Amino acid sequence: MSNQDLPYEQYLDMLRQQMHSRATLFRKLVDEFGPGVLDIVQQQVIDETYALWQAADLPVRDLNAVFGTVWESTSAVEYTVEERTPECLRLRVTRCMYADEMRQAGAGDVGLAFYCAYDYGFCQGFNPHIRFTRTKTLMAGDDCCDHMYELLGGN
Length: 155
What we know:
Layout: H1 5-33, H2 36-55, H3 63-71, E1 77-84, E2 88-96, H4 97-104, H5 108-116, H6 118-126, E3 130-134, E4 145-151
Helix pairs in contact: 2-5, 2-6, 4-5
């Protein structure tokens, strides 16, 4: 490992610690107050992410920009592109650091609220003409996450 890699590795270690801390805290909150706690977290994540991406100064907000912004730069997931056209971007995620860590901590439901909800807020804020769907998640124990972005009548 070079010295240039060290800051990124430190970042990943801090992120893993944060995930385990959230898992512990929110497992206790859910046990005490019920699963509605995670509904609140999920909506907050969606709202914050929406506002962040809506305000972003981006020259283009199409599916190529989604791919370049989210997928090309990540090392936290392994995926294959199943379809990529101007109107549709479909990916199959087969490994996800967030799902690995949260499921290891016994907190996939917490991970869904904190990390998987991000995708919905991102798409809503990035471009309201993008419809995001996902029917399977690694976080919930499925064999993959099936991300689909569709650009509907506008850009």
